[in-house]
Amino acid sequence: MDRRKALKNMGLAMGYTVATPTLLSIMQSCKGEPVATWTPEFFTPAEGGTLTKLVDVILPKTDTPSASELQVDVFIDKFAMDVMEKDQQDFLRMSMGKFTDKALQDSGKSTVEDLTAEDLEPVLASSLKYSKEDEAKMFESITSYTEAVAEGKEATIDDETSRFAFANNLRGLAIWGYKTSEYVGEEVMAYLPVPGEYISCGEVQELTGGKAWSL
Fold first, then answer.
1. Is the Cβ–Cβ distance between 35 and 75 less than 8 Å?
2. Which of 13, 109, 138, 140 is the most exposed, having the fewest neighbouring CB atoms within 10 Å of its CB?
3. Which Pfam families match (predicted)?
4. Domain coordinates in residue numbering, the chain
5. Could you write out the DSSP letters of every residue in 142-177?
6. For 4-15, what is each residue's pLDDT tens digit?
């Protein structure tokens, strides 16, 4: 896959259009922080290691850097910690637990730390291979569950739907974090730090070589 072509016209993933000072500060704080010294703020160290492996499964190194090389894992951790509401955080923890439980069961391993990218990739793939009709039903279940929790009612959701929710949200956040990184903004997308002439009706191919403008 040519990820450069896939990314250049991609819109914000998962409908996230937040541009709050908190979110902007998160993007800034991820720019120069060495990955080797990263300590998760929201996730446990074991979960952080799993997160790093998963974002690199979603966006591996090709002609552009991998997700973890652009610190997408750090971004997601900070986003979960600083932007998500308590009920969203709880749902993320729960759904990630169901996902890693499945990976442990399928791999025969006993601890999350032992899981490799090879153990996680098939679970990620199977958690995202659903028809549009099945996805719609799962989204309905997720909405019913989250609404019941918000109202303080007893709620349950099956493990398969939980794994889908985690995988789908993670994919959206990973693509969003990758697309809004400094590298992609300046090297992959059309980048103009100082706006110039305004052309209202020009062809995209002619103006930017077919690339979407960097945010």
1. no
2. 140
3. Gluconate_2-dh3
4. 1-33, 37-180
5. HHHHHHHHHTT------HHHHHHHHHHHHHHHHHHH
6. 444 433 333 333
Q: Determine the residue type at 173.
A: L
pTM exceeds 0.85 for this model: no
Nearest-angstrom CA–CA distance, 113 and 115: 6
Residue 30 CA from chain centroid, whole number: 15
- Residue of 99, 98, 123, 100 whose CA lies nearest to 113: 100
Residue type, 76: I
Per-state percent for the chain, helix, strand, coil, to nearest 5: 65, 0, 35
Residue 36, pLDDT above cutoff 80 = no
Nearest by Cα to 7 from 166, 177, 127: 177
Amino acid residing at 201 = C
pLDDT at 178: 83
Instruction: Report d(CA 97, CA 162) in Å as an integer.
Output: 9
Amino acid at 59: L
Q: Which residue has the tokens 């077919």?
A: 210
Token pair 């704080």 is found at 29
Dump pLDDT digits (tens) for 106-159.
Answer: 999 999 999 999 999 999 999 999 999 999 999 999 999 999 998 999 999 999
Q: What are phi and psi of 80, to 5 degrees?
A: -60, -40
Distance CA 60, CA 62 (A): 6
The three-class DSSP label of residue 129 is coil
